[in-house]
Write a structure and sequence with these properties.
Layout lengths: L2 E3 L8 E2 L20 E4 L4 H11 L3 E4 L3 E2 L41 E2 L4 E8 L11 E3 L10 E9 L2 E9 L6 E7 L21 E2 L9 E2 L6 E7 L10 E5 L8 E6 L9
Parallel strand pairs: 1-14, 3-4
Antiparallel strand pairs: 2-12, 4-7, 5-6, 7-9, 8-16, 9-10, 10-14, 11-13, 11-15, 15-16
Length: 263
């Protein structure tokens, strides 16, 4: 079974974390494909076939792009920021399930919104094969662990979801959307993305994806908000060694989040 972490309360405020994480250990590097496919509504079917054939790492659907829902594990659960949440989105395939973790699972119409999926395999900075998923602490996020991040945005708000595989079983992790892409230095991802600038961190003004892994080391989380990202303002997710508003940076995944679709 895969564990869900759902946070419904506002929780205590914490200083907005910009702390550096621990240095990463060595591990086996695993590669992933990466690319971007942007799909006008009338060409969604053709683009999906091309993406599946080419193994694209990131898929964007506009005018109603979404996943085909294959390999999902049940309906999505609500999380913080549920006010103004978008309609339900089909769940995506397990990260890396059945082949290349960077491939596109599918594109289908979900009226009036935009959809993005990115998947990767963690490896330490400086590995022979570069990766957009970096682990700084291989004890907490082993090399070869996998991540998938999805975003659905429409005029009513934004839904961000994540699935992970191959982490430490039965452990709590923190996770937030950050402002900059990942780098060899854990601090490169910048601070938490905030809807409105604030001196403290909280799950209403930010995107928190805290989760607990199951007995197999798999986890998932989801956050809903009635607001959307600024163009280019959200560029990664950071996995922290503990839940809440702060914590050491154990791993990072660069994600091309998009802005909310205007009605």
């Amino acid at each position: 079974m895969t564990a869900w972490m759902v946070r419904t309360g506002h929780g205590p405020a914490h200083p907005n974390s910009g702390r550096r994480g621990t240095a990463g250990g060595e591990g086996d590097a695993m590669s992933r494909g990466r690319g971007i496919a942007r799909v006008p509504g009338v060409l969604a079917g053709t683009a999906a076939l091309l993406a599946l054939a080419c193994g694209v790492g990131v898929a964007h659907g506009t005018d109603g792009g979404a996943s085909d829902g294959s390999g999902g594990h049940g309906a999505a659960h609500g999380a913080h920021g549920a006010h103004g949440a978008p309609a339900a989105v089909p769940s995506a395939q397990e990260p890396g399930g059945g082949g290349d973790p960077g491939r596109v699972d599918g594109v289908a119409a979900v009226g009036g919104g935009s959809w993005m999926r990115a998947a990767g395999v963690f490896s330490p900075p400086g590995s022979f094969v570069p990766s957009d998923a970096l682990t700084y602490d291989t004890r907490l996020v082993p090399a070869g662990a996998r991540i998938e991040v999805t975003e659905f945005a429409d005029p009513s708000g934004t839904r961000v979801g994540t699935r992970l595989r191959g982490l430490v079983p039965g452990r709590a992790y923190g996770m937030h959307v950050h402002t900059s892409p990942c780098g060899a230095d854990p601090a490169a991802a910048g601070p938490h993305y905030q809807h409105r600038p604030a001196a403290t961190a909280d799950p209403v003004n930010e995107v928190w994806l805290d989760f607990r892994t199951d007995e197999e080391g798999d986890g998932r989380a989801e956050a809903l908000h009635g607001w959307g990202f600024r163009e280019g303002g959200a560029r990664s997710v950071i996995i922290h060694d503990r839940q809440g508003g702060a914590g050491e940076r154990a791993a990072c995944f660069t994600v091309p989040f998009g802005p909310r679709v205007q009605g």
